[in-house]
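Need tokens for this chain, all 126 residues.
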Amino acid sequence: MNIPNNLKFTEDHEWVSVDGDIATVGITDFAQGELGDVVFIEIETEGETLDKGETFGTVEAVKTVSDLFMPVSGEVIELNEKLADEPEVVNKDAYGEGWMIKVKMSNPAELDELLTSEAYKDMIEA
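Here are the structure tokens for all 126 residues:
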């Protein structure tokens, strides 16, 4: 299973990559594997400011629909438009082309509350 060391993780299986005050968010390789074939992603929060833990969208797989949760507070400034036509990219490249949103963080200190790659690995193996 792929768990990159340079990312932060949530207990809800989102990953976060940070560049300055911009956080890129997606779901983990573990999450996409558990969901199965992703068939639809709905994110209608572009331009909205959301708090950490709020729902920013949903991911629909063949078997289930799951909410997507904000790992940090901030404004959703960009959506991955590619996912509208090709949601299966999340299954193929969860940490790259399968990213979901970019967030202008309002409280970067919240990053300290996220899991390291080691802590995330320990959680999913428990």
